[in-house]
What does this fold into?
Amino acid sequence: MRTFAFFAVKKPVIIMNIQENIIQGIQLAFQNIFNHDLSLDQISLAPTRKEFEGTYTFVVFPFLKVSRTTPENTANQIGEYLKENVAEVADFNVVKGFLNLVLNENSWLDIFAKIYANPNFGQLPANGQKVMVEYSSPNTNKPLHLGHLRNNFLGYSVAEILKANGYEVTKANLVNDRGIHICKSMVAYQRFANGETPESSGLKGDHLAGKYYVLFDQEYKKQIKELMAEGQTEEEAKKNAPILLEAQEMLRKWEANDEAIVSLWKQMNGWVYEGFDASYKRMGVDFDKTYYESNTYLLGKDIVEEGLKKEVFFKKDNGSVWVDLTPEGLDEKLVLRGDGTSVYITQDMGTADLKYDDFKIDKSVYVVGNEQDYHFDVLFKIMQKLGRPYGPGLYHLSYGMVDLPTGKMKSREGTVVDADDLMQEMVDTAAAHTKELGKIEGFTPEQATELYEILGLGALKYFLLKVDPKKRMLFNPQESIEFQGNTGPFIQYSHARIASILRKADQLGVDYTNFDGKGIEKVEESESSLIFLLNDFEKKIKQAGDDYSPSILAQYLFDLAKEYNRFYADLPIFNENDPAILAFRVALSALTAKTIKKGMSLLGIAVPERM
RNA sequence: GGUCCGCUAGCUCAGCUGGAUAGAGCAACUGCCUUCUAAGCAGUAGGUCUUAGGUUCGAAUCCUAAGCGGAUCACCA
It folds into this structure.
């Protein structure tokens, strides 16, 4: 249902779609030549492979039953028809069952001129739908690490991509600020810190909390060893370690609103938030709404009641409440403990309702690692069974782990790549690299610093976003992230190159802003290839939105930058004598720069004017 | 063991709603800075698309099975 509405709104804006014109032409060709009605969605065009002449290729094999003749005949007849009746088709050639269509020069110029004149290129019109993207969702007992970077960059980018697709987007952060893990940091702080503060230690607040989380684990392990030496089994020792009991006691006190504990909790969380804010700022991500689990952890119990009434849930003898998802191919799953307390999914059910009550969202995206696939599978099935209006719009954007060559990252054991460290390292590398290339002449120190920041973070974000989110990825800290090839800086460089051209064009007084496609006789191959790609931009935005996949855009932007660099090496601009062609090439450059800038902004990556 | 995910060049990845001779980047090698930024461009070399069956005019892509790797299957979050 939603898809249809979406199309209806979207159609008028597609400025001119030659692809659709050709497809309609093919439909007519089948009616006229073979006396057969095909629906439009049965017909599809593919880009022609580089080694053949043409732009679009129509594969006729599937239609031989209709045409009742050889592939060559079928293709030739359709080709003739299109050449006669479709304005954009200048010529065609047939290779076996492949009909390659050559577009005429004017259609290239028309496409270009229309995109060029569109101030909203890259922004699809509002579709009237609201979506929430929940991402980041940190624990407040330790600093952010590499895995969080992937999460944050993904979440931010998907939110921006959905905006470009016409959604009204709310970015949400669900902060896990309570629970036993927080108490662990707090216990260790009480024991070992001697009142240390971020100010006194010079540590960022989140790193300070993380330090005590690690200390807790060290002490815990030590106590387990001691208990085992006294004859306890490992299992017993893990349960009986005094420091763990202390943390559990602290959690009970916290839940009972013990003044001293709550005040320590507030103090430490405050430090952590200051630290997170700094990290988020550097990452360039933000949120419209923050939920705290300390406020939401009791939610969901009324939903359990509702579910029991609706017989979606059932009660076992000990009073615990379950949902039976075996008909859906899952298991029975606990939704409320026998003692009436919540589990993870209880509170997630409550939060789902809360989000809907707050924002009346049509869709809700959860950016959470794939180790929680099962949890979200269960959660969504429950909400759908309960008949929630937003049920069909729930989506788990499940991404793979970022692995290190040494294995899985564990905060407790300190085997993590810290987010702040990594960002700093990337910026330092960018600085060293830029200086080595001698590219900072004429930069003030402030401008240089800004550039390093743009390049370092651009490299990092692109590195994490260019890979399909659902795939796990390997990060080797020894091999530094590249600045050449399929990288953020490569695309940023292409933009800076064009910016330089535009500065020069302005200096020379070239009028390219009003270019309308007139006065050009011939469109070169590297120009039409570029126009072809530019014409694809909105299609890629749509696809990236439908698939929740920034990697589609990343790949596209790399292709676009590469195509531009080919054009740049191929054809002169300011040495071109014909002023119309000169203006055309500057305009083409300007549109490419605009597209790169817009596309990169959807990845959360800034783009420099000079580098 | 059940369920889910992945496996494409030495490495990192595209391609997966079936279409032509499977593409990029890195690393290696060869050219190109007295024309607009060489973080670039052009080229060489590198592949039994994990394996075995199947579906069909056609399979990296769809189906089945196996292998390898990972995740998950808590009255943890």
Remarks:
- Residues 1-15 of chain A have pLDDT under 50 and may be disordered.
- Chain A has 22 helices and 14 strands.
- The radius of gyration of chain A is 29 Å.
- The first strand of chain A starts at residue 46 and ends at 47.
